[in-house]
Automatic annotation (TrEMBL):
<feature type="binding site">
    <location>
        <position position="245"/>
    </location>
    <ligand>
        <name>FMN</name>
    </ligand>
</feature>
<feature type="binding site">
    <location>
        <position position="176"/>
    </location>
    <ligand>
        <name>substrate</name>
    </ligand>
</feature>
<comment type="function">
    <text>Catalyzes the conversion of dihydroorotate to orotate with quinone as electron acceptor.</text>
</comment>
<dbReference type="InterPro" id="IPR013785">
    <property type="entry name" value="Aldolase_TIM"/>
</dbReference>
<protein>
    <recommendedName>
        <fullName>Dihydroorotate dehydrogenase (quinone)</fullName>
        <ecNumber>1.3.5.2</ecNumber>
    </recommendedName>
</protein>
<comment type="pathway">
    <text>Pyrimidine metabolism; UMP biosynthesis via de novo pathway; orotate from (S)-dihydroorotate (quinone route): step 1/1.</text>
</comment>
<dbReference type="InterPro" id="IPR001295">
    <property type="entry name" value="Dihydroorotate_DH_CS"/>
</dbReference>
<keyword id="KW-0472">Membrane</keyword>
<dbReference type="InterPro" id="IPR005720">
    <property type="entry name" value="Dihydroorotate_DH_cat"/>
</dbReference>
<feature type="binding site">
    <location>
        <position position="90"/>
    </location>
    <ligand>
        <name>FMN</name>
    </ligand>
</feature>
<feature type="active site" description="Nucleophile">
    <location>
        <position position="179"/>
    </location>
</feature>
<feature type="binding site">
    <location>
        <begin position="66"/>
        <end position="70"/>
    </location>
    <ligand>
        <name>FMN</name>
    </ligand>
</feature>
<feature type="binding site">
    <location>
        <begin position="246"/>
        <end position="247"/>
    </location>
    <ligand>
        <name>substrate</name>
    </ligand>
</feature>
<dbReference type="GO" id="GO:0106430">
    <property type="term" value="F:dihydroorotate dehydrogenase (quinone) activity"/>
</dbReference>
<comment type="subunit">
    <text>Monomer.</text>
</comment>
<keyword id="KW-0560">Oxidoreductase</keyword>
<feature type="binding site">
    <location>
        <position position="298"/>
    </location>
    <ligand>
        <name>FMN</name>
    </ligand>
</feature>
Length: 340
C-alpha cells in the first residue's frame, strides 16, 4: 500500500508534499476508528522492547530523528506510527525562514535525500506553545541550535535560551552543532568551543530541580582524531550521550547523475548507512561503552537497524527511511528486535 502512496507523493515537490502529508495524517487520524487501526498496523507493544537510558524509560528503541517534525505540529499523531520516542526541532531562539528554496531534493536512485533547509523553524516560543498541548506520553527530545545571524562567539547564548524555554516541555535535549546548512556551525564541533558550550549547558542543567539528559549530535564527516576528541569531551563535560550521525557533505559513490548540480546540502539515506555505523562502532569501542549512543543514518530496513545495535547503539532513529519505506519500517525493526 505505501509503495503506491509513495509513487503519488514523489510526483510533488518534496518540501510541499511534506506539509501536505502532515495535514493528511492529522485529518486521517481524526476519523473515528483510524487511531485503533493504525495502532494495530504499526505499533508493537512488548515489555522486552523497553529501554532505560539516562533515567528515562523508552517504550521501544526506535525513534524519529529531528527535522521531520521540527515545529512540533505532529508529535501527538506520530505516536500511532509505532515510535518509542520523537525528536522535535532543530529549533532556534528566533523564527527563521532558512535557506532559499528549492532546498530539499530526492535522489530516488540512491534512496537518499539532500537538504539545505538551514534550520527553518517557527522559533522557540511557537514550539513551546505546541508542546503545551502534548497529549501523548511518548518521550520527546528537543533538538536545539543557533540562529543563522548569531555569530559563533555568541552561540552559547542561543543554546541557553532554547534550553531554558524548552526545559519544562521535553524529556531530553540534543545539542546540534553538526548541520552543514548553517554557515560555520560545524566549527562549534571543535574541541574548545564545544567543551565551553557543553559545560555551560551542563552547569545550567545541574542548577535545575530535575536534570534533563543532554546529548550531542555529531557529523559523520569527522576524522578519527576528531572522534577521539568527542570521546574526551563527553568524559570531561559528563553529558549523557551522543547521536551519531547527522547528514554528510560527502557525495562519493552516488548513482544519481549530475548530483553536483543540486549544490550544497546534507545527504541522508542509504548512502550514509555504512559511515554512520562506522562512527557508532568507533565511539562505542574506543570509549569502552562509557556513554549511550543513538544510531541514526541510512536505516532503511530492520537489518540496517540491527547493524547499528550490533555496533554499539542503544537506540536508533530514522528519517529518510521513514520517507522511503513508510511507517511499517518501525514495526519491522521492533519485530526484528524481539526475534533477536
Amino acid at each position: 500500500m505505501y509503495s503506491i502512496i509513495k509513487r503519488v507523493f514523489f510526483l510533488f515537490d518534496p518540501e510541499k508534499i511534506h506539509y501536505i502529508t502532515f495535514k493528511l495524517i492529522k485529518n486521517t487520524l481524526a476519523i473515528p476508528g483510524v487511531k485503533s487501526l493504525w495502532k494495530k498496523l504499526y505499533v508493537v507493544e512488548d515489555k522486552r522492547l523497553e529501554r532505560e537510558l539516562f533515567g528515562l524509560k523508552f517504550k521501544n528503541p526506535v525513534g524519529l530523528a529531528a527535522g521531520f517534525d521540527k515545529n512540533g505540529k505532529l508529535f501527538n499523531e506520530l505516536e500511532y506510527t509505532g515510535f518509542g520516542f520523537i525528536e522535535v526541532g532543530t529549533v532556534t531562539p528566533l523564527p527563521q525562514e532558512g535557506n532559499p528554496k528549492k532546498r530539499l531534493f530526492r535522489l530516488v536512485e540512491d534512496e537518499a535525500i539532500i537538504n539545505r533547509m538551514g534550520f527553518n523553524n517557527d522559533g522557540i516560543e511557537a514550539l513551546v506553545e505546541k508542546l503545551k498541548n502534548r497529549k501523548s506520553d511518548l518521550l520527546i527530545g528537543g533538538n536545539i541550535g543557533k540562529n543563522k545571524v548569531t555569530p559563533n562567539e555568541n552561540a552559547i547564548d542561543d543554546y541557553v535560551k532554547c534550553f531554558d524555554a524548552l526545559y519544562k516541555y521535553v524529556d531530553y535535549f540534543v545539542v546540534n552543532v553538526s548541520s552543514p546548512n548553517t554557515p560555520n556551525l560545524r566549527a562549534l564541533q571543535d574541541k574548545e568551543p564545544l567543551t565551553a558550550l557543553l559545560n555551560t549547558l551542563k552547569v545550567l542543567n545541574d542548577s535545575k530541580e530535575i536534570q534533563r539528559p543532554i546529548l550531542l549530535k555529531i557529523a559523520p564527516d569527522l576524522t578519527d582524531d576528531q572522534l577521539d576528541d568527542i570521546i574526551e569531551i563527553i568524559d570531561t563535560t559528563k553529558i549523557d550521550g551522543v547521536i551519531a550521525t547527522n547528514t554528510t557533505i560527502d557525495r562519493s559513490g552516488l548513482k544519481t547523475n549530475d548530483v553536483e548540480s543540486i549544490g550544497a546540502g546534507g545527504l541522508s539515506g542509504k548512502p550514509l548507512t555504512k559511515r554512520s555505523t562506522e562512527v557508532v562502532r568507533y565511539l562505542h569501542t574506543n570509549s569502552k561503552g562509557s556513554f549511550p549512543i543513538i544510531g541514526v543514518g541510512g536505516i532503511h530496513s530492520a537489518e540496517d537497524a540491527m547493524e547499528k545495535f550490533e555496533a554499539g547503539a542503544s537506540l536508533v532513529q530514522i528519517y529518510s527511511g521513514f520517507i522511503y519505506e513508510g511507517p511499517s519500517l518501525v514495526r519491522k525493526i521492533n519485530e526484528a528486535i524481539l526475534k533477536s
